[in-house]
Each structure stands twice: as C-alpha cells, then as structure tokens.
Amino acid sequence: MRECGKAQREAVQLELLRRHLELAGSSEFYREKFRQAGVVPSQLPSLAELNRLPLTERADLNRGHGSFFPAADLTPTDLALTSGTTGNAVTVPYTSNDLERLAYNEMIAFFRIGIKPGQRVLLCVTLDRCFIAGLAYYTGLVRLGATAIRSGAGSPSRQWELIRTLKPSVIVGVPTFLWQLAQWGMEHGLDPTRAGIETLVTIGEPIRGADLTLTPLGEMLEKGWGAKTYGSYGATELETAFVECPATAGGHVHPELMIVEIVDETGRPVPDGQPGEVVVTPLGVEGLPLVRFRTGDVARLYSEPCSCGWQTPRLGPIEGRLAQRLKCRGTTLYPENIFQTLDQIPGITAYYVEARAHFSLADEITVVVGGDHGVEPAAIQERLQAKLRVKPEVIKRSPAEVVAVIEKGSGRKMKRFFDFRKVE
C-alpha cells in the first residue's frame, strides 16, 4: 500500500476510516460528537470530509476516559498507561488485534531500516510498569524474525556486559541514555565504535531538528558509536509509531494504520512543510478508537515522494510541545530548543530547565547545569542569547545534584523540564 498510486491508496484508506468511525461511534463520547457534526460514519464521502469532525482533546480523554470505550464486547488483552508527561496517566486497553497491529507497525519500521531476521537487538527500554513501547519493539522484532535482548533501561555496566557477551548489532533506547552508555564505556576503557553496533534506534527524544539534520546529541551518538542513528516518535494513546527510513527525512505515515493532519491553533490545516500540532486518527484500533486526536506535539508533514522510494507522507521531528511553549521577551521557544543548545556546550554533563510565570505575562526561565570546572554560567547565558535570543538565569550545581533531580520519580523518562507556571 505504500507503493500504490495515491488514488488507490486513498480509496482503501477511506474504507478503513469508515470502519474505524463506525466502531468509535458506538462509544458514548463519539456517538454524541458525530450526532452534533451531522456525520454518518458509514456514509463519509471522502477523506477530506474528516475535518467536519471535531478534534479530540487530551483533556477530553482525561475527563471522560470511560466514555471513549466502544460498546462492542472487546476484552482487553493488555492494559497500558500513558506516561503522564503533560497530564494524568490514562489507561489504554489493547485487544489481541491491537497488539497484532502494534507488532506489525514495529515490524515494518525495523525492516525498513535494514534489520534482518536473526539480527540481535538490545532493547534498553522499559518492558514492565504498564509501558507499551518496550512491548511493541519486542513483538515487532519477534514478528520480523530478529533476536530481541530484553535488557531494559539503566545500569550501563550490565548493558556493556550484554554487548560483550551477546554481541547485538542494534540498540534501541533514549538518546541521552545511549550517550551516557557510550561515555561509560569510554571511561572504562571500552571503545563504543569497536563494539559491533551498526544501528541505533532512538525513542522519547528528538535527534533531528526542524531542518531534518542531526541535533548535537544526534551527532554525538553517531560519532560516539560509529553507528547509523534513526529517530522514532509515538504515543501510547495512538497505538502507532513513526520511524525514520534510510533517507532520514521524517517518519513515514503508514496509510493502513493512521491518518495524520497538521493543524494551527484554531484547528485549521497548515500548508505542507509548515509547523503545527500533530493530529492523528489511528485506524483499526479496537480498545480505544480515537478520532482526530490532538497530540499537543509540534511537527511538520512532508507529502512529496521520499528519496527512499516510498510515496507516503512523512512526519518530521517533534519540535516541541504546545503545553511547554515558552514566551520570553517577545521570543517563543520550546524547552527542546534550550536542550539542543546546551548539548553543544563542552563540559556540561547534565541539565534541566524550570519555567515560572511572571507578572508581565512573560515566562521566567531558569537553566540548571552540572558540569566540570570550565563550565561558567555567564558563558552559557551568552551562548543561549546568541542562539535563541533569550538570556535566562543559569545556575551551576554539581553533576550529582542535577542528575538526582532529573531522575527522581521520573519512572520511564528522565525529566528535564519543570513547569511551575500553573502551580504558582
């Protein structure tokens, strides 16, 4: 379906969309939404008519979670929890078909970047605590016929022991952890470029900027491991993920699994290649069938044919989260912009950012860094101002103090942005 003509692809996608809307429409929430919009799912005339349906807010899901469950008798096989990064954690039920769909999605992604049956993959991701991503990667690899090494996150010494004894050629993990893993190896006389790792698949944090080039962290990963690095993006609610292809020009949209829109603050579509909020309708989901779900993430969609040969649209890297958008002295930016600048400064080993509300309706930004003796707050301020046109307060603490803050109670992900604007 990724290589068929656009008209043929859209015809198949329309039928899949109608089926998805039928199931979603049996839930209390969407039954009322469709009635208000005057939409009969089975009679939707074209994909273009999807924008007649209202957008689904994350707040809707938080408030009326049970009202999203379809009336059909669908017994969940697995219960996952969202990370709760921008709100309360939400339970997402997966049926057996949903899990099969998830495995198919990941199998396509791994196959597309060249992972072959029998190839060994070290999974440095959480596979317990109701986390879905680790399970998705594992089942996708199994379906592909590759060999999964379920290491989980943490303990660089354990990861290196597995690399030494089991000899994986691929590692999946969070970029900052993969960099820490490379540093640990170098500090203990182990050369990551000689470890046999050919491919890195990153999750949870972008490794490319809006121009599709590697961020400083992405560059460090490729150089430090001597491995080709691919980024990915997904969310538990979507039950779908996007992974870069060999052209590394965005994550391909699999038309049999999802419809992706990019909208502005009013919900209107933005032109191709322009930034906006990512809105996803995940097709074929049974346990929690969402329609036009606003992710709160900012990215771009590219519709021109990809140099890899696939003709489907591509979702660019996540450039920020609307809920985390900062306004400082007339400049709009996201924490990720600050992170990418800090990654370029030698001597900084850990950092986090705090945001507080100011009476002038601007945001007060504080950057807390941990680093060696050569790290000077004044120099960091100048670097941030030159790069981002803002000059936040910079505080230096010991690396151990900073790491303790970003890892405390983080669960699945290290927390590097602390938003105090709504609680003060």
Report on this model:
- This protein has 424 residues and is of the alpha/beta class.
- 30% of the residues lie in helices and 23% in strands.
- It has eleven helices and 21 strands.
- The strands form six sheets. It has a six-stranded mixed β-sheet, sandwiched between helices. A four-stranded antiparallel β-sheet has the order 10-11-12-15. Strands 20-19-18-21 form a four-stranded mixed β-sheet, with helices on both faces.
- 41% of the residues are buried.
Number of distinct helices:
11
Estimate the helix proportion, in percent.
25-40%
Structural class: alpha/beta
Weakly predicted, low-confidence segments: none
Number of strands: 21
Judging from the principal axes of the Cα atoms, what is the shape?
globular
What is the makeup of the main sheet?
A: 6 strands, mixed
**Overall average pLDDT:** 91
Rounded to an integer, what's the Rg over CA atoms? 22 Å
Q: How do the strands line up in the largest sheet? A: 4-3-5-6-7-8
The termini sit apart by 51 Å
In percent, how much strand structure appears in the residues? Answer: 15-25%
